[in-house]
Specification:
Elements (H helix, E strand, L loop, with lengths): L27 H22 L3 H21 L5 H10 L13 H22 L3 H21 L3 H11 L12
Helix pairs in contact: 1-2, 1-3, 1-5, 2-4, 2-5, 4-5, 4-6
Length: about 170
């Protein structure tokens, strides 16, 4: 994922005051979290394929809650990010550069959307949707963990470049 320069805060919805920017991230943190998430999503797919639909749905609900945590609190405050900061990062050399937290946080929102679709469809009785949603999210988490390619981050950059994201009222026009 490309490293971005720090962006100034964007206006909060309806408040008109700039929102404080989240601190920059060690780019290895989201990859670490993606690895854990990929394993858990693979477990959901396995459970779904073996007929353990209730267990698969339950684990997908937990993962959706974790994605919500990351999307709302920020990728740096996600439980996997906190584990990385506390136990892994102290054992590593400092990162070459830090990254803007906005793309990984947006990617958490994309993960939330994908897993929520699976949860909702699973709750209305479409059990195969749980495994399908988990498989789709697994592909994204796997790409991030293994190849450092964040699909949600790339979507974020595409939306920023197209002008659909990242424009405050002062710069629109």
């Amino acid at each position: 994922m490309p490293l971005l320069p720090a962006e100034p805060g964007t206006p909060a919805a309806g408040a008109g005051a700039p929102r404080p920017r989240r601190p920059d991230l060690d780019p290895r943190g989201p990859r670490f979290g993606a690895g854990i998430t990929a394993v858990l999503l693979l477990v959901v797919v396995f459970l779904s394929l073996t007929g353990a639909s209730a267990a698969a749905l339950s684990l997908l609900v937990v993962l959706a809650a974790l994605f919500a945590w990351g999307a709302i609190a920020g990728a740096g405050r996600h439980p996997w990010g906190l584990l990385f900061k506390r136990f892994v990062r102290p054992r590593l050399a400092p990162p070459g550069a830090l990254e803007n937290p906005a793309p990984p946080t947006f990617a958490q929102g994309v993960g939330l959307l994908v897993t929520l679709v699976g949860v909702v469809l699973g709750l209305v009785g479409l059990a195969p949707a749980v495994g399908i949603a988990a498989a789709a999210a697994f592909v994204a988490a796997f790409l991030n963990a293994v190849f450092d390619y964040c699909l949600g981050c790339q979507l974020y950059l595409l939306l920023v470049r197209s002008g659909l994201l990242g424009r405050g009222p002062a710069s629109a026009g």
